[in-house]
């Protein structure tokens, strides 16, 4: 069984705020599969640093506005 990542994200909220962008649309913009985006959004998978930056850029925000790692982690 895969251990969930401790990295949390606000992708779902950002998609909603971006005129309810679909997972498929965001995945296409970033260059990943919808299945990979779903796993990232649900916290089952941590994206590479490159993908994390691409997701943030798709929303026009900084990476720290999308992803968060708990203090003391």
Structural account:
Helices cover 47% and strands 5% of the residues. The protein has helices at 11-17, 23-30, 34-41, 49-59, and strands at residues 8-9, 67-68. It has 4 helices and 2 strands, in the order βααααβ. The protein has one domain (8-65): 434 Repressor (Amino-terminal Domain). The longest helix has 11 residues, at 49-59. The protein is globular. Strands 1-2 form a two-stranded antiparallel sheet. With 73 residues, it is mainly α.
Note the topology.
Elements: E1 8-9, H1 11-17, H2 23-30, H3 34-41, H4 49-59, E2 67-68
Antiparallel strand pairs: 1-2
Question: In a nutshell, what does this entry contain?
Answer:
This protein has four helices and two strands. It has helices spanning 11-17, 23-30, 34-41, 49-59; strands at residues 8-9, 67-68.
Mean pLDDT: 93
Q: How many structurally independent domains? A: 1
Unreliable stretches: none
Span from first to last CA? 21 Å
CATH class: Mainly Alpha
The biggest sheet amounts to: 2 strands, antiparallel
Query: In the CATH scheme, what's the topology name?
Result: 434 Repressor (Amino-terminal Domain)
What would you say the CATH architecture is? Answer: Orthogonal Bundle
Percent of residues in β-strands? 5-15%
The CATH homologous superfamily name equals lambda repressor-like DNA-binding domains
Order of helices and strands: EHHHHE
Structural class: mainly alpha
Q: What is the count of DSSP helices, taking H or I runs of 4+ residues? A: 4
Properties at a glance:
single chain, 73 residues, mainly alpha, 434 Repressor (Amino-terminal Domain), two-stranded antiparallel sheet, 2 strands, 47% helix, 5% strand
